[in-house]
Amino acid sequence: MAGYEADGDASIKASVASAVFKVRCQSTRPGEAVFVVGSHEALGKWSAAMALPLTTSADTFPMWTSAPVPLLAGMMVEYKFIKQREDRQGNPQWQKFDGNYRVTPVAGKVLQAVSDWEVASADISELTLPEEPDKIEKSSEAGKVAAKQEKEEILLKMAESQVETAAAEVTSTCPLAVTLTKREMSRRNFSQSLLTLDVDVVDGPKEEQNENKDEAETTITTASAEEPAQEEHKDGDVVVCQVPLDEYEAPLNEEPPTEEPQKVPDVRGVSLKHITSFSALADVADAATKTEHRKGKKVAQSHYDPYNLNVPVVIVTSEVAPYSKTGGLGMVAASYGFEFARNGHRTMVVAPKYKHYDGINFVGETRVRMKDQEENVKYWHLRKDYGEGKGTDFLFIEGQGIQRDGGLYNDDDGREYPDNLERFTMLCLAAMEAPLILDINGQGKYGDKVIFLANDWQAGLVPVYMCYKYRRHNCYSQARVIYVIHNLGYQGQYHGREACRFFGIDDKAAGDLVLGNCINLSKGALICADRVLTVSPNYSKEIQTASGGFNLQDFVSAKAASLRLAGILNGIDDCWDPLVDPDIFLNFSVEDFEKGKLKNKAALQKKLGLEENSELCLIGFVGRLTWCKLVLAKPSGQIAHQILTPLAIACCGGAAGAGRGQIKSCDLFDQRESSQLP
């Protein structure tokens, strides 16, 4: 073991010497730090809880350095390095080699012990401490800001250095994420219904179109594939069946008519064949309904006092109900628009103009630069007033390629439009220009002191442009961007684009956007956003793990370590009120909810042909048939049996065979049934 020995004639005496400990460690993750621990009291007496923390900087990472440590001259000290969380929670990770480093301090000198995390030897030399340059006092406001920026740069360097490690963790711990990455690029950025995965449903026998597909992308077949599965489980403890229109509409006290063998029954609702993302919540209460519903109800009021009402809110989203909606994002964006305005903020919602909407008016146009050329964009406006001078400005962006005959993001075959990156780049640029150039309703411009809420990767360029375009030119210097993550599984990944030219940014900005060999808009947004929010506190923790971060977990952790990550639980829309819901069998309130739920449960059991028993647990699931909803890609009968059977058995009778569970698998969508579920 390399070390430094004092002169032979020097005796051990109580004179003070110092040592600086350095180690090159590139494997630290955001939120972690390196500590030195050893035999001397100043090094914690081998206690990890008392270990001495080392520091690094954006310029010196991955080198970690201690402050000069006072030690007794001539007394050999053994030491080692450990990695652990900065708050010292959890188990520390020790260097794995046998033995310890050794150093013997010399009176009146400062020794420097430099080593590598993986190497069991240290280089010892004498260190001459330079004179301290003039520094900004850390206690001053400017010093605090500089220190915070320095820490954030270090955290991001750690995240960048661990990209390959993070990807390996995802591969080893999250098979579903691996399945997602194996999809063709045109299917990665949006949720895909499992009934449309890489296949076209046709009449007659079904064949796999690609035998090498991962199991989670197995060809989905219809009745012909379901029959064997139902035959296999017909004597089991769980009954799996689909509900056609005839069975729904038959009198509840009669058996459904027997179907002809070759007849395919009609179903009520919307076919899932060409729907890649849909929501059970078909309706969102309008402003008048919300206002009326909340009158006199304390629990329906805001439980916080709004601040900074002089700061307008600009919500940037790829969809907003009721104008455009494929799922929860559209509804949440609409709720943002209402709630901020109701609390007193001047509020604007910016979304693409996928088609012409009733009541919108042309209010202006501008040109934005992308792909090394200028593109013209037009603004269309609609005002919704909520009374007392409060209301929301809905702004719709019209530009080349935004309007399509198919879905919002995908064609009918589920493949992403090839120019989606251009479409949403245009959305972000147009949204950031709007507060600066549009005088809406004669109230003047929103101005550059605003707060942007950028939702999911489609709006991920808003924080990037804020950092690298606008603030560099002293525009939006008082503005802030909050990036809201609704689903980190979809990140806006694009190959074959040269970031600097396409987005009109420099190399540093391009580095923030690139992950591996492709552009990743979510990564850029995570790095550049002033704050990051998720749709629940638990989800903010989940996306810091390998199973929920999808290769971006370290960048999320970096935001958390700098105290810029939080989760706010999504609420329930006002229209979901059992007291006035027209779709349930019996209305009820908090005063008689037990009676009301029992009667509704019994009616639903009867309607679905289930055993009418108030003691049995009745569970309903309304959602997209996607892997992120814990549904594997199987024919629908197998979905119900393999995913729901253990739950039904557990709830209906404990161990398998102890009771009889029943499952109704409905490959259709109808708002009324979603309201009637427990």
Automatic annotation (TrEMBL):
Name assigned to this protein: CBM20 domain-containing protein
Predominant localisation class: plastid
Organism of this sequence: Durusdinium trenchii
SMART domains noted in UniProt: CBM_2
Keywords: Amyloplast, Glycosyltransferase, Plastid, Transferase
Upper classification of the organism: Eukaryota, Sar, Alveolata, Dinophyceae, Suessiales
Superkingdom field: Eukaryota
Domain CBM20 span(s) in chain numbering: 11-119
InterPro entries: Carb-bd-like_fold, CBM20, Ig-like_fold, Starch_synth_cat_dom
